[in-house]
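Think of the structure tokens as a kind of shorthand, similar to the way a musician reads notation: each symbol stands for something richer, in this case the local conformation of the backbone. In the example below we present two proteins back to back. Begin with the first one, reading the sequence and then the tokens, and try to describe in your own words what changes along the chain.
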Amino acid sequence: MRRLLLPALVMLPVLAILLALGTWQLQRLHWKTALLAEIAAAEAAPAQPLADPPRPWSKVSVTGRLDHGREGLLGLEVRGPVLGSHLLVPLLRDGAPPILVDRGWIPLEGRGPIARPEGLVTLEGYVRPGETLGLFAATDDPAGRRFYSFVPAAIGAALGLDRVAPYGLVVLGPPGGLPDPARTLPRPTNSHLGYAITWYGLALSLLGVFAVWARRRLKEPA
């Protein structure tokens, strides 16, 4: 048994780490499952009037006037063979700073007619928080009103607005016409069950390999 002591002392911390990682992924699985259920419930519920500050990714409604003269484009997205972008329009509100509204996807070339409602409108969508520019973020084109990162203050300044809300609104709506709005609230991926199975599987494999090795070791003459 003494011949197994040192290998066992080496194996046990590795086994403990693998089991801890598997347990952590199970905890993440339960948290992510609850989060997805919360998102689904919010998506099915009626939109709530926008409160300031709003909860990120919450489903809200807000009323104002779309300033079509200050439209911009956000990001790039390929749909089928067509390259497009998201139409970004300030929503002007009485007594509150404008909100940058992502009205939906439009093609960059060969655009069809784009709906531009006038007057007072009420929009439903989800709150998109502003981003922080990363080291490798694409460079915006403020003069051309082309933006690749959602930084409300920088976009608002490029569009000629003195100030804007530090968050945006992504419009939710049915398909049909341009711009093509989002259908659902964003959902994070949930791969934690697979990760948990992987870590627990590695722990089980380690035990199996050690057991086979230990059996052979014990059969060897001293």
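Once you have a description of the first chain, move to the second and do the same.
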Amino acid sequence: MDKIINQLQKIESLLTKIDVRNDKVSKASVGWHLEHLLLILNSSLKGLTMTDPKDYKPKFSLKKFVFLNFGLIPRGKIRAPKQFFPLETPTMESILKLMNLAKERLEATKNLPEKSFITHPFLGDFDKKTTLRFLWLHSNHHLKIVDDIL
């Protein structure tokens, strides 16, 4: 959880650079990457509160194993579902709003049972601990892209 808090602090430090683009690295702006990762973060943290831990069904998947243990996300190869694309050009206000919501939801996860879970569309069920690892890895992936853009 502390790693995600550190990422949120990094996002805050990047707010003045949200309009920066570098088409050699990504077709999207810094702000797009920040808003996208916050949309995933908020949706997943909310999802943890909406499932019944009794329904958690972990399954082994080689893709899941590789991702969670090595953090490998190939750039430009995986398309996020449309609901996780920023609807408009990200603004400092929209990113701050999502960031504050993420802080609240992250704090709320402390009280959730360990078997609270989300179902990832490609990788299956993630319990609370695995969800937090997934979120850190996904955010890290986009923050690396932001670093390369800058």
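Compare your description with these statements about the second chain. The two ends are 26 Å apart (CA to CA).
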